[in-house]
Write a structure and sequence with these properties.
The chain is of the alpha+beta class and 160 residues long. Helix content is 30%, strand content 42%.
């Protein structure tokens, strides 16, 4: 493979991984558990509130346990990194997660650490591990405004 072909393949791989990550959020929020399970390799792992291994276990966990956790949830991911190594890749992506549970709105954030593998020409999650920074009722989540400062670090009056 010449240099141009290798660079083009890297761009295509990064785009495919970006779409995989976005598709994960869309099918998760739509509760399309069949589609979600296919985003993982046959030996794939999900590690979050629970640790499950294999497509069947991933499908079972999401379609039973996760399906009952909230009336609705919405995932927003950004700040993605990818390190390619042939048919494998690793990376991290930041996540904001909004949900409604028993009529209460929740806000959370964290990140996913991903191990990915190309199988049959498609990128899939080999392992997806979530780390939560916080998960709190929206009413208790972010309160107040940040303290704005001068370039020297001195506090400015609150903004209206």
């Amino acid at each position: 493979m010449n240099d141009l072909d290798a660079r083009l393949r890297a761009v295509e791989d990064r785009q495919a991984i970006s779409e995989l990550r976005a598709h994960y959020c869309h099918v998760l929020d739509a509760r399309d558990w069949d589609a979600l399970a296919t985003l993982f390799t046959a030996d794939g792992e999900f590690q979050g509130l629970a640790h499950v291994t294999g497509r069947d276990a991933i499908h079972r966990f999401f379609s039973t346990t996760v399906d009952r956790l909230a009336e609705g949830f919405w995932h927003f991911c950004t700040n993605a990194t990818v390190q390619l190594d042939g048919d494998t890749a690793t990376g991290r992506i930041s996540m904001q997660y909004l949900s409604v549970k028993k009529g209460v709105s929740y806000v959370s954030a964290g990140h996913y650490d991903d191990e990915l593998r190309r199988e049959d020409g498609l990128w899939r999650f080999r392992k997806r591990q979530i780390t939560f920074y916080y998960h709190a009722p929206l009413s208790e989540g972010f309160v107040g405004s940040p303290q704005y400062i001068t370039p020297e670090g001195l506090p400015l009056p609150p903004r209206a």
